[in-house]
Amino acid sequence: MNLSLKMFIALLCVFSLCSSCKEKMTEDEILTIGIAPCRKPAAFIQTLGFDPNRSAYSTETDRYKGVILIQAPATETDTIRKYQHPSWSKFGYMASITTDDLGNAYTFPVPFINTENQTIQTLNSIFKIDHSSGEMTLFTTLPKTDSVKDMVAYGLLGVYFDCHAKKIYVSSVNGSTRDKENGSLFVLDQSTGKVLDRLDGVDAMGLCVGGVTGEKKLYFGKARTPEVYTVELDKEGMFDGKPEFAISLDQLGPRGDDKARRIRFNTKSELVIHGIEFNFNLAGQSIKPETKYAFGYNREEKKWLLMSTE
User: Fold this and answer.
1) Measured CA distances, 297 to 54, 152, 230, 266, 268 (Å)
2) CA distance 293 to 252
């Protein structure tokens, strides 16, 4: 046996050993992903005199620039309370928000009506609201293209914190044009914002991680078509496969071609999709009509079934 063949066999053995040592997930563990709670309210909320159990962040871009905190009324005679930290409006209009297991919140800028006060850098940056101080600062800026020719006006379109692997998932369409899908999905480190993994060639909006099918998957709404796709993940939350079709919203709801703006699992293990009309046009997304679709998974037939629409 020559030396090169011996080296090849040795490397093959090492690869096989590493693969077999990869930590596996139990079925019970997988089925709770996306459903088991982990998020907690930020500590600073209580210092404002707000009830953390009745308070939530909002990005009502038709009324406020940036982020606001809203406390829901406790009774019919009670009033809505609102709060905005001075730093929450410094970076323009904001889009989706996700919170982590420490109470930190993550969000990103979005163009509203026009691209004034927005650049490629700001549109591909994520901002973090600290759970202790309430201050919003730059968390990380994702890799971006140098050219702006024919690019769509958007950068980031989705953000989601996975309680299971404690990773942050982000979708960016930076680099995409009206005709070409050049976006990416990123896996970020919760502490540093460092890019740990990425999947290119995907324009996605709503993001969610779940395991009700028996596999841990990232669910993402396509930004160009009324479809939801999945990509399998390993226990650490890294991409472990190629995107596969899961659900279509085509001809469903009042508009018939909704894009999945937000995706979450409820306590009944249903996949709840918030759909809106979206064609990369510059408009206030929060004021657009929205339809909520709930899908249940049939494990015998291995397909999703529409349960309700509202």
Assistant:
1) 31, 35, 14, 13, 11
2) 9
In one-letter notation, the amino acid at residue 139 is F
The residue type of 130 is: D
**Distance, first Cα to last Cα, the chain:** 69
The DSSP code for 242 is -
pTM of the model: 0.90
Q: Give the pLDDT band (50/70/90) at residue 117.
A: low
- Report the C-alpha gap between 2 and 4 in whole angstroms: 6
Give the pairing type, strands 259-265 and 244-248.
Answer: unpaired
What domains appear along the chain, each with residue ranges and CATH number?
26-309 (2.120.10)
Burial of 158 (0-12, 13-18, 19+ CB in 10 A): buried
127: three-class secondary structure by DSSP: strand
* Alpha carbons 187 and 216: distance in angstroms, whole number: 14
* Stretch among 111-125, 162-176, 282-296 having the lowest mean pLDDT: 111-125
Give the closest residue to 181 by CA, choosing from 158, 204, 153, 156.
Answer: 204
